[in-house]
Amino acid sequence: MRQRVITGILFTLGVALFMGPGIRWPWIPTILLVFVSIMTVQELLNAAEAGGLKMVRWPIFIGSLTFLLPLLLKLTSDVIALDAWNGAAAALALSLSVLLGLMMMNLIIPLIKTGPEQLMSVAAGSLIMAYTAFPLTCSVLLLYYVPLGWYWLVLALIAPWASDVAAYFTGSAIGRHHILPKISPKKTLEGCLGGLAGTVIVLVLYAEFVLIRVTEVRPDMLMHLLFALIGGVVLSLASQLGDWLASVIKRRVGIKDFGKLLPGHGGILDRFDSAFFTMPITLLLAILYWQFFQI
Fold first, then answer.
1. Mind listing the pLDDT tens digit for each residue in 38-49?
2. Which domain holds residue 255?
3. Angstrom distance (rounded) from CA 125 to CA 78
4. Number of domains, the chain
5. Measured distance CA(149)–CA(154) in Å, rounded
6. Quick one: which of 258, 233, 238, 235 has its CA closest to 248?
7. What whole-number distance in Å separates Cα of residue 41 and Cα of residue 268?
8. What is the C-alpha radius of gyration for the chain, rounded to an integer number of angstroms?
9. Model pTM greater than 0.90?
10. How far, in Å, CA of 28 to CA of 23, rounded?
């Protein structure tokens, strides 16, 4: 436990060192996103191979980096002249189109060369591309396109922490009813509900003391509270689903953790599995927030 706490503190400080300057220089957290992409792809490939799949790695790494296309579009084209939402839509369309094309090529070319016996391996490779590239694309859109998107990306990273901590302490204290005995035996219904409550509290406070002040909106307070309540529930559910999916993968291939980089925690994906699910949800919440309370 001591090692886990120390690693958790150091990890949090490391993420903060990259995220903090991002409020002015978004390229700094972008470096963190590139690192997360490379490490999670590596860990997922190792997990797939531990499960008996044979992977060709380099196409998967290339596909996972399509999340940087919105940044390249921002820097090199006239999309910057569009309003924020049209620019974000164009960037998302470009990124997803290229990603889908690479996923299809990764599926078709190996099957033509080797035949159907490689279907599971190439399908897993394409899924790894999507699993990593799509949420990180949403993060880049938040950083470079969404007004005050840095604050939303911070929320996407805080929400899993709030959900995990609240679920852990609630489950440890009063957890009785196990909900995923075949996937994660320690998960309880009480812990799940505690995670929901903890995330709701964090989002209500964040919306009240951060979002209103930085966006300078003047919303109806009842509607603002309702938005925070629903958003907190959805973010917590997304966070827990991300954690459960990671547990399914690890149990299926017979590994305890995705890596050993973080003693007591595992690999990078063991820390970002939930965030990969909250990043797209947070982008959606940011869009809805501006639509309801600003426009």
1. 999 999 999 999
2. 2-293
3. 34
4. 1
5. 9
6. 258
7. 10
8. 20
9. yes
10. 9
